[in-house]
Structure prediction request, 297 residues.
Amino acid sequence: MKNWMGTGSAALSFVLWGMLPLYYQFMPEVNMWELLSHRVLWSAVLLGGLFLLLGYRLPWARLRSEPRQLGLILLAGPVMSVSWCMFTWCLTTGQVLATSLAFFMTPLFNIVFAVLFLKERLSPQKHLAVALALAGLAYMLFSYGQLPWFSLIMGANFAFYGLLKKKVHYDAGVSLYLESLVQLPVALLIIGWLGLHGTSQFMAGDWADKLLLMGSAPATLLPVGLFCYAVARTRMSTVGLLQYIEPSLAFLLAIFWFGETADPVKSVGFAFVWAGLLISLLPLHLLKRSRVEWHKP
Prediction:
């Protein structure tokens, strides 16, 4: 049950991540740093309010007695901020290809990190799934004719965040709240600086703009929280393969919702990736068991 809860939470987190463009299409034109700062600010407010409402107190004594765990949590916040900075920059500058390729590369980094640092062993199914995913990625890279350094760094950074969360033994709510708190001073400085110079969209916009900026916190906290819950309860290699749900949904939304022209290169790449993902999720061990029982006299 624990494994299925982790797998289901990972899948749901990537579904929500893939659907995020539906929310961000209504976002006003806003400075990237202001958007990121408000995400941090309202994340801290939302999580702090929930803890207060539920009467939950942070385990400060335990955190002080486990400096390594505290260090991992505090490091995870800036690492995630780097990922969000790169992702937001891609959205605000039209670098859709860089974002798409990064989403493709992150699961591969997750699997590599799982094998190297967590000593996970890949099943034959996952070996085949990884081979198919690599084939799809290699086809895209060969077709586009360049090595996407930005996407490589972005993909590796998010995979590193997943590795950090795998080593954190506190629940997702506590770690996410501490991640927000460690970034809050910088976020408040940016918001204050933009407000003093009269360039704050939050101050100048109407209430709809304000609510959209505030809503960026729960819109991103929910998938991140589910992701953190999942990595603590299932294998990183499984999370890595499930992560292909995110770029696949973004691809489908781009075609059927935003009316973009289908990219034949990405279509072939997605076909390879989805074939690998389906193979990795097929319960072949159950099929083998059923076959053995069928042939029993």
